Amino acid sequence: MRWEALFADLEAQFAAQSAAELDAQVAELTRAERATVVISDRLRDALGAHLSVRLRGGTVAEGRVLDAAPQWLLLGAHGRQALIPLAAVVVVAGLTRSVAPGPGVVEGRLTLGHALRALARDRVLVQVEVDGAELTGRIERVGADHLDLSVGHGEVARRGGLVAVPFAALCAVRSR
Q1: Measured torsion, CA atoms of residues 32, 70, 52, 170, in degrees rounded to the nearest 10
Q2: Every domain of the chain and the residues it spans
Q3: CA 159 → CA 148, 153, 156, 163, distances in Å?
Q4: What is d(CA 50, CA 52) in angstroms, rounded to the nearest whole number?
Q5: What span, in angstroms and rounded, lies between the C-alpha atoms of 171 and 85?
Q6: Are 83 and 116 in contact (CB under 8 A)?
Q7: Which pTM was predicted?
Q8: How many helices (H) and strands (E) are present in the chain, helices listed first?
Q9: Closest CA to 149 of 171, 176, 116
Q10: Is the pLDDT of residue 4 over 70?
């Protein structure tokens, strides 16, 4: 009887030690996996959710998440849309802890330039927010790192009221 109790005690100790080691491994793997999460994956998981996004310069964009890609976020509110470069995002409120799987090959290649070229193609009247200023016009051309915006209306626009805006300066591009 003593031997059986001794072996049962040793087995219980071994099981407890194994469980503790497994818990430690799971915790370490969880931390390692969390370290690979990028904010665009969390934003993609929030499709349809209402978020509040503080931008560089202090303005706030709010709306329902319509789309998200590795470089940008598209919010919709009150019939308008805001294309927000993730580089301009300072704080996001309203996200859950869940994460979408990584983007597919095509989705992963959708850069800010791609989204801006779609706006240029459709001749959408936009309001471009940069640090400390807002410009209204149509995107004429989109380069590798900047866009050309035709500002003004009528004669001003025809006389070449064109300004170049580097992507790095963009805080938001809103549909009018």
Answers
A1: 130
A2: 1-36, 39-175
A3: 14, 10, 5, 12
A4: 7
A5: 7
A6: yes
A7: 0.78
A8: 5, 10
A9: 116
A10: yes
Assign domain 39-175 one CATH number from 3.40.1190.20, 2.30.30.600, 3.40.605.10, 2.40.128.100: 2.30.30.600
Give CA–CA dist 50/77, Å, rounded.
9
Quick check: 172 and 57 in contact, CB under 8 A?
no
Residue 38 dihedral angles phi and psi, to the nearest 5°: -105, 155
Quote the CA–CA distance of 147 and 71 in Å, as a whole number. Answer: 16
Residue 68 has, within 13 A of its CA and on its CB side, a CA count of 26
Render pLDDT for 83-142 as a digit per residue (tens, 0 to 9). Answer: 999 999 999 999 998 888 777 777 777 899 999 999 999 999 999 999 889 999 999 999
Six-digit token string for 24: 């430690």
Confidence tier at 158 by pLDDT (50, 70, 90) = low
